[in-house]
Amino acid sequence: MVDYTLHNYFRSSTSVRVRIALALKNISYGYRAYALLSDEHKAAKYLQINPQGLVPSLETNEGPALTQSLAILEYLDETHPAPPLLPKDPLGRARVRALSQIIACDIHPVNNLRILQMLKSEFNADKAAIKNWFSHWVHEGFGALETRLGESDTGKFCHGDQPGMADICLFAQVLNNARFDVDMDIYPHIMRIHKTCTSLSAFKAAMPAAQIDAQ
Ligand SMILES: N[C@@H](CCC(=O)N[C@@H](CS)C(=O)NCC(=O)O)C(=O)O
Prior knowledge:
By secondary structure, this protein is an alpha+beta fold.
């Protein structure tokens, strides 16, 4: 039997992604919180788990800790196939990975805490400038995502009628956007899917406010 410990932070959207996948697949796990604003993720002990000093990491009793949220999602999908996070057909898989990566590769990395901190400390960006930066990169990615969600493969969720990897990424990013007041009224497909996800217990359980370190 595999033991899982999730090293994460309540508000981290990449942590939200892994918490949703664990909940959808009904996998129980230990919860270890790192306060990012106090740099707990940069402590030597955590760097032994994840040399990148980023959350989340998923520790198992089978080998080295897993890092990178999308790699963790794919590992969970391969080890616990039901319910699937990716479709079976190669074209469908490529589509879902592409929708996910709009968020995970092209929006999230440039809006990560360490980037925003550097904008402030090295480039004197004030609150308004940081908000502008954050919104700019969200709109770049979400504009394209919204267009793609107009495709016929979209159903109740990003791809068909079951939630998968792209919905997980979408849901977590929309939560992040709320903290920066990003105008979401211009994204009807994204907001419809986000609302549908919000009604599912796995998504509710993964939300920041439901975590012990949110108290
Ligand atoms: N590509 C990585 C990104 C992980 C990541 O950047 N996590 C953020 C929290 S959402 C973090 O640890 N930030 C700490 C920092 O920026 O110092 C993944 O998907 O797991």
